Amino acid sequence: MTRAKICGITRLEDALWAEALGAWALGFVLVPSSRRYLSPEAVRPIARAVGPLVVRVGVFANTPPEAVLRQMEAAGLQVVQLHGDEPPEWAEQVGRFFPVIKAIRLFGPASAGWLSYPAEALLVDGASPGSGRAYPLEWLEPLRPHPRLIIAGGLTVENLLAVLALKPYGVDVSSGVEAAPGRKDPEKLRGFLGQVARFNGASQNQ
Ligand SMILES: O=C(O)c1ccccc1NCC(=O)[C@H](O)[C@H](O)COP(=O)(O)O
């Protein structure tokens, strides 16, 4: 079973579409330099409007642990995604309060050293988060032993099948389901989430 996370949610209607179409998790980017940035106060009403069985993820980059915890509380989020160069101690501090996804930006083949990073899941991304740019899937190979690998970076309905064939714990998409930065396209969401659901269904019948 591969779970789909829709990242870079900035609008209530996008969150509700993603939920209705079967997303397992929604990501809110709390990185001020991002085109998809929302303040914790702006995230809160969107996060509260979604049903309780959809996981709300706060995405941070190089934000010190105390500030991460403060913003998670203010935004009403449930899982922390560390998307910068956070040392393991930061993940451990945040991890006392929230499950942690560690995002790794790939500039070349991944290092197996990441397998021991203290996080519940690893999210493997391209060099430039949220850019829609993909990387060769062979670069992931050293990380395949991780039990919860989430694949991100330039995913679209066109290249998704090759990624699903690797049977990752999750897939994560932002640009590939957008009409414009920060604005999701309901038809692209439908296509992407529908393909994940069909693949999961087909795998169960094998
Ligand atoms: O999306 C952003 O603008 C962003 C900025 C800074 C840190 C992280 C960011 N996004 C995090 C994500 O998890 C994206 O979904 C991931 O990078 C994949 O994006 P895309 O290649 O556009 O599908």
From TrEMBL:
<dbReference type="InterPro" id="IPR011060">
    <property type="entry name" value="RibuloseP-bd_barrel"/>
</dbReference>
<dbReference type="InterPro" id="IPR013785">
    <property type="entry name" value="Aldolase_TIM"/>
</dbReference>
<feature type="domain" description="N-(5'phosphoribosyl) anthranilate isomerase (PRAI)">
    <location>
        <begin position="4"/>
        <end position="193"/>
    </location>
</feature>
<dbReference type="Pfam" id="PF00697">
    <property type="entry name" value="PRAI"/>
</dbReference>
<dbReference type="InterPro" id="IPR044643">
    <property type="entry name" value="TrpF_fam"/>
</dbReference>
<comment type="pathway">
    <text>Amino-acid biosynthesis; L-tryptophan biosynthesis; L-tryptophan from chorismate: step 3/5.</text>
</comment>
<protein>
    <recommendedName>
        <fullName>N-(5'-phosphoribosyl)anthranilate isomerase</fullName>
        <ecNumber>5.3.1.24</ecNumber>
    </recommendedName>
</protein>
<keyword id="KW-0822">Tryptophan biosynthesis</keyword>
<keyword id="KW-0413">Isomerase</keyword>
<dbReference type="GO" id="GO:0004640">
    <property type="term" value="F:phosphoribosylanthranilate isomerase activity"/>
</dbReference>
<dbReference type="InterPro" id="IPR001240">
    <property type="entry name" value="PRAI_dom"/>
</dbReference>
<keyword id="KW-0028">Amino-acid biosynthesis</keyword>
<comment type="similarity">
    <text>Belongs to the TrpF family.</text>
</comment>
<dbReference type="GO" id="GO:0000162">
    <property type="term" value="P:L-tryptophan biosynthetic process"/>
</dbReference>
<keyword id="KW-0057">Aromatic amino acid biosynthesis</keyword>
